């Protein structure tokens, strides 16, 4: 993995800040999730396993590359469920199974423009000292995450694998697209899980809940991020 982002080619299309992120990850067998991946991509692996990620956070100041963020609609809560991908050219990225947000207009725009699997949900985030809680309710599906923060976490190969992902893969209009991004390296903290209600949320995207606590838990105060133009290639067999 590259712990530092490759420079994006101009022009940039979007920038935003990702704040108060909790990263929950479960190791799984690649074959168990391979059917979720767009054509031309496959599960990326670390020591023979790939990972399912559940990441609640705050999105802030989304907007064009220059100027202020979009008022109101540019800041919202999000929880995503994600997998880790690599394509035939060696580009590593993320495949999103869902991105739940509490701004209906954002959900509609992201689904229409980028084809991303956004869903509208009622969500909350609260902080009490070093404790963060996130809740979400989506069509009767409730989820909750609570974590207490610890010391700064040394970033090793696994942390780089899980967080130094410089793009996303998505299938749209008969192509598998790669949307690149850049941001500073993460500053991570260890985190102790104090509550977790996520089985129904994982089932809602077709995953089998692992039935155990996450194998890796971490927290970051956040980073600014920017996105470049997507590139695509025809999907095999199309």
UniProtKB/TrEMBL annotation:
InterPro entries: ADC_dom_sf, DUF2071. Pfam families: DUF2071. It comes from the Bacteria. SUPFAM superfamilies: Acetoacetate decarboxylase-like (SSF160104). It comes from Kribbella rubisoli. The lineage of its organism: Bacteria, Bacillati, Actinomycetota, Actinomycetes, Propionibacteriales. This is DUF2071 domain-containing protein.
């Amino acid at each position: 993995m590259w712990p530092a982002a490759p420079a994006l080619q101009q022009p940039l299309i979007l920038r935003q800040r990702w704040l108060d992120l909790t990263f929950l990850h479960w190791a799984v067998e690649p074959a168990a999730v391979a059917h979720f991946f767009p054509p031309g991509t496959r599960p990326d692996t670390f020591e023979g396993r790939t990972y399912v990620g559940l990441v609640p956070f705050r999105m802030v100041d989304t907007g064009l590359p220059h100027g202020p963020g979009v008022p109101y609609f540019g800041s919202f809560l999000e929880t995503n469920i994600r997998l880790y991908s690599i394509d035939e050219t060696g580009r590593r990225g993320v495949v999103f199974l869902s991105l739940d947000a509490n701004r209906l207009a954002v959900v509609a725009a992201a689904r229409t423009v980028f084809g991303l699997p956004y869903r509208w949900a009622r969500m909350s985030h609260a902080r009490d000292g070093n404790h963060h809680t996130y809740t979400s309710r989506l069509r009767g599906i409730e989820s909750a995450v609570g974590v207490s923060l610890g010391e700064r976490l040394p970033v090793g190969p696994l942390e780089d694998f899980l967080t130094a992902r410089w793009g996303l893969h998505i299938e749209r209009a008969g192509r598998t697209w790669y949307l690149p991004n850049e941001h500073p390296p993460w500053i991570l903290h260890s985190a102790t899980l104090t509550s977790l209600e996520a089985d129904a949320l994982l089932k809602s995207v077709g995953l089998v809940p692992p039935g155990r606590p996450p194998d890796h838990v971490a927290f970051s105060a956040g980073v600014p991020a920017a996105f470049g133009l997507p590139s695509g290639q025809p999907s095999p067999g199309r």
